[in-house]
Design brief:
Two copies of one chain form a homodimer. Among the domains of chain A are: 8-145, Butyryl-Coa Dehydrogenase, subunit A, domain 1 (Orthogonal Bundle); 160-285, Butyryl-CoA Dehydrogenase, subunit A, domain 2 (Beta Barrel), CATH 2.40.110.20; 462-592. Helix content of chain A is 56%, strand content 11%. Chain A contains 19 helices and twelve strands. In chain A, a hairpin with a 2-residue loop joins strand 1 (68-70) and strand 2 (73-75). The two termini of chain A are 45 Å apart. The interface between A and B is large, with 103 and 103 residues.
């Protein structure tokens, strides 16, 4: 098994140099207690946790103690509780929690950097801890003081674990169709009845309690999304004496998945014995709005997951390519010479460079979104609005690009290993099985693409798109200052013009009321948009690297690292960016082939 | 589990109408005993075997009785022997074997059509039978009369099973480095010593014998590929009395693979006790040349496998998309209306159409190659040479396109299922695990791409490429006769011009002696070449469909089938062909990024 899964040097470069985490500690009282140098120490300790508690269990969790229900109890791998404990004790579960709730109140970029480490070390093992943090945050944001008092501490401490319970058998992508019901009781609670499926980390055999953040319809509520409310539904509720009693949440099954086997995706039945109580969070019928806070974070978390698995796959591939000897240079076929390391073959280098470009580009985009997330909360009026728009626009892209391209990237990693990549002797086949889910989680690529084109690009009269173009333009302007970057600045400028053209062409259909046509190829629009967003992130990294190179202080490995950033940027522009050509052509071609025509599928 | 995995109607359309199997029965004595209508009956019986012996065991073979070694015995799924028997008894193992060896002497297109059925039904289960046929064919082509007498009947009868034993721990893509040795013995046999890995179906617990067609170096042979000889190495050899005795071939391990679990990939040790005898096939030092007969068939067989798994995935996705209700039309969001089948969503239709276009395009290309294979044997002088050139050129493409694009196509199928696609409740996740190997088997995509650009395109002064351009041009000319096809004929013509331009640009580098640069992006050249080859196959299918529509005899489902061919052709031209733009751009862009620069990979 490869020993490396992440580069701390790269995380530091992205967090400090490219995305300037110090901007927060310098300019906002909210973070004034922090010193950016401390963030590096946090990442070092995160890496230690990864090395000790997570990574050594990556392959075994895929094969042994795979979660399942035995005699009604959901058994998980025995290392999972240790991981949950380590996350709570090291403070990572409270990393961005405000001080008033005992949190560290860090800029979210630091948490994201930590997530990259943990997910790259062992993505499937992180569900319990991460979903708990997300669920607790929902209560913290929208719950009553009573709910906060009862749940927050226990959850942030990792004693009670949380889930998000949305999907039902007939309500997956179409959440408006969910049917789980909530009937008001005299004591202010609600009786919950219904079934939820695909609930990640939906139950376990080690935590004192499991707290489901569940969407349901209060009796008589409007149909559709306007009648959905959010509830806290614990596995064990407190009775009148304050003692924990069974709350009629039954683990009905564990889906057997292709990958991410460490975390069970569960089928849960609520209120089969009509004895399941839930507690309303916030106001009735506002549940979906609340849930979108968690959903949006979860979408960014999926981007982190995609990039992290790609990271682990890249470093494993790189190590193998350096060690594995096979063949000779194409123009030097003397069989008496020893074989060379496969990294010397151009094609293998292309595959590795591709992996690196996808992965580091994805990571940079996640940091970008994380920065906007932060500024949408703490920035001043205009800055705040600007970054809220950017965040809204980027969220579906951050969810999708690292997933879709990450799948390809990990698959390319398998190819570097040849036949060995297809076997359990190396971790790549598991990584491909793991990452394959990312384009489905938290809204499939189809859903994200309709969100991007159908909502985000056009919302508020295109204000978010304008904010985005403005932001990319800033980077282009910066890049024009460096001779070596000028050709790439020019390229990105041209690509942005093409993207605008395509966008106009498509929104033209919407304005004519042709909504189905407008969105029919939204997936391809997403692909185009994502490619350019990553080109932007590469130019941004290129600017920073060139600046540091020009300053002349870097030498040795540090200089090589900066040069490799420039090289990978070039690779992305020469190998990936040309793909926009075909996409733009299709998106501006009006031949209708997928609206109607069901009978053509035989 | 989906009940459909292949369309006989489509196979018949491709075999009879597009690729004109009757051309053989009409024009060549070799096939004069056959009536093309009989071929349909053969496919019907093949489908019955698929339905009864293969498909019902597809998922269980992935999970139960996965082959492994127990007390030195390689145990396989108990249905495997039944499948081997069914293949032999139904005559499929002898489908293209000449009558003199008891075969049916069918055109290979018929065998290919049968293969599509079997592989689509249960790809992993077919290894034992198929490798045996390939191994027997090697003996039949190059072995002595003695070897033929001893092995052929037993092998074609499925009593003795065969393997191809090439790969060694340090000789995978680089076969010239293999080190297994053969020491001449007084009795004319050779003592074999060495290890082979990744030997598919390398051993079993049910056949009377296992016959390895093995590459080794005779003591003192030249190094490199010029010193490799081919041997028959049985698991049990005949002693002086004609009795079978152990031949010192030890099953040392079974690789645990991501997919295709029904067939063990094995590590075998030959001659650990210095008691392993092998029998030379043909002349010494010509082994690699002989093996390429099997290798080339195996490469086409991998193309069949890719297209077949894509077929099973498509029909499963299609069925699910028709049954699964979720959401409403984008412009009709009344939640009081019932949900619609997901096939009605444009994005789902795009994904299904994509799967269909990849799969039926791939199948057509395989038939094309199979036709050339046949004509390279039985055609008259000029025709024979023309088709040998075409076959040589197309073989790496037939191996690669259905593999690489098939992987994407099956992954797209998972996406149609949403979260369910990631679970064992549906067969798609297994299909993705199964098909992932195809881009590695029998020479990775990297190796195929270098073969295409570095050998096939330039061989004999570009004669194969010329033959290919000529062949495509014929289809373009045909298509120009139909008003509805003219735009697509024009498009393909333009694409061919661009391909020629790119080819000239690249071969220009070769002529300047820049061999490494010439081949650095061979993979992208393969992608470009493959896209256009499939566009050709779609235009060819379009011509046939349009012709039949114009004849006016088709109605109902038959007419709809033909119209769906035209529609899918259009889809391929509008959605897939534009991808050539980006590829052509990169291939004509001289920025060097992957020759040298190992230190940029950090």
């Amino acid at each position: 098994m490869a020993t490396e899964y992440i580069s701390l040097k790269n995380l530091r470069f992205l967090m400090h140099d490219v995305h300037d985490v110090a901007y927060f500690t310098k300019n906002f009282d909210h973070y004034k207690q922090h010193d950016p140098e401390m963030f590096d120490i946090m990442l070092d300790t995160a890496k230690q946790i990864g090395d000790k508690e997570l990574h050594p269990f990556y392959q075994t969790m895929d094969r042994k103690h795979v979660p399942d229900i035995f005699d009604g109890v959901t058994k998980v791998h025995p290392q999972i509780p240790n991981i949950v404990k380590a996350m709570a004790e090291s403070g990572w579960t409270r990393a961005i929690v405000p001080e008033e709730y005992g949190g560290m109140q860090l800029p979210s970029m630091v948490r994201v950097a930590g997530e990259f480490i943990f997910q790259a070390a062992n993505n499937g093992a992180m569900f319990y801890s991460e979903l708990t943090t997300g669920a607790a945050k929902l209560i913290q944001s929208f719950g009553s003081e009573e709910l906060k008092a009862e749940y927050l501490e226990k959850m942030y401490d990792g004693e009670w674990l949380g889930t998000m319970a949305l999907t039902e058998p007939d309500a997956g992508s179409s959440l408006s169709d969910l049917t789980t019901t909530a009937t008001p009781q005299d004591d202010g609670s609600f009786k919950i009845t219904g079934q939820k499926i695909f609930i990640s980390a939906g139950d376990n055999d080690f935590s004192e309690n499991v707290i489901h953040l569940l969407l349901a319809r209060i009796d008589g509520a409007p149909s559709g999304t306007k009648g959905i409310s959010l509830f806290v539904v614990p596995k064990y509720r407190k009775d009148a004496k304050g003692e924990l009693v069974d709350n009629d949440v039954i683990p009905a099954g564990v889906y057997h998945k292709m990958g991410q086997k460490a975390a069970p995706a569960m089928h849960l039945i609520f209120g089969e014995k009509e004895n399941c109580h839930g507690y309303l969070v916030g106001e009735p019928n506002k549940g979906l709005k609340y849930m979108f806070q968690l959903m949006n974070s979860a979408r960014i978390a999926v981007g982190v997951m995609g990039a992290s698995i790609s990271s682990a796959a890249y470093y494993a591939s790189l190590q193998y390519a350096k060690e594995r000897k096979q063949g000779r240079k194409i123009d030097a076929k003397n069989v008496h010479e020893p074989q060379i390391a496969i990294i010397e073959h151009a094609d293998v280098k292309r595959m590795l460079m591709y992996q690196k470009a996808i992965m580091e580009g994805s990571m940079s985009l996640v940091f970008e979104a994380s920065r906007s997330f932060e500024l949408s909360k703490v920035g001043d009026g205009e800055e705040r609005e600007h970054h809220q728009l950017l965040l809204d626009l980027l969220t579906p892209v951050v969810k999708t690009y690292p997933s879709e391209e990450g799948i390809k990237s990990v698959s390319t990693g398998i190819q570097c290993f040849g036949g060995y990549g297809y076997t359990e002797d190396f971790p790549l086949e598991q990584m491909l099985r793991d990452i394959r889910i990312t384009s489905i989680y938290e809204g499939t690529t189809g859903i994200q693409s309709m969100d991007l084109l159908g909502r985000k690009v056009v919302m508020k009269g295109g204000k978010a798109a304008m904010a985005y173009f403005q932001e990319v333009n800033k980077t282009v302007e910066e890049a024009f200052k460096y001779e070596a970057l000028k050709p790439y600045a020019k390229l990105l400028k041209k690509e942005m013009e093409q993207l605008q053209q395509v966008t106009m062409h498509l929104t033209g259909k919407a304005m004519q009321g042709e909504i189905e046509l407008f969105l029919a190829d939204a997936n391809l629009y997403m692909e185009l948009f994502g490619l350019i967003a990553i080109a932007w992130q590469w130019l941004k990294q290129g600017v920073e690297a060139q600046k540091q190179i020009d300053q002349g202080n870097a030498a040795g490995d540090d200089l090589n690292f900066l040069q490799s950033k420039i090289h990978t940027m070039k690779f992305f522009f020469h190998y990936e960016v040309p793909r926009t050509k075909g996409l733009a052509q299709r998106l501006q071609d009006d031949e209708v082939l997928t609206v109607g025509f069901e009978n053509m599928l035989v």
